[in-house]
Amino acid sequence: MSKSHLNILVQLAKVDGIVVQEEVDLINEVGKANGMSEEEIASCFEEELPIGDLSSLTDDKKYDLIYSIVQLMKIDGKLYNEEIKFCAKMSAKLGYEEDVLFELMLKIYADPDLCADKESLKKQIQEFLIP
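Above: the chain's sequence. Below: its structure in token form.
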């Protein structure tokens, strides 16, 4: 995951006007899991990068990003219209049909521990990729 991809998560966290600690923790966790330093992660909170072309990502990277986006949207336990609109825009940029967002939300929201079987879910979600 690149700095620009982590930036998408930061923008989502900020879209409702309130960044809660759980969102910060998840963003840090995602950044660290993808080999980013604390300085690189912190810089994502300080500078807002434009969201570039996401269509060239591999299907695996697209899935990882859309999964992280929905996971972050869930973390504070509240759904805001701004978050849903942002996620819908991101799923379209990633090349998914619009129904993917609802499918992911249902699956991830049904799992209170955020530990859904990612591989099984991935197979279902990849069917929503527009060829």
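The radius of gyration is 14 Å.
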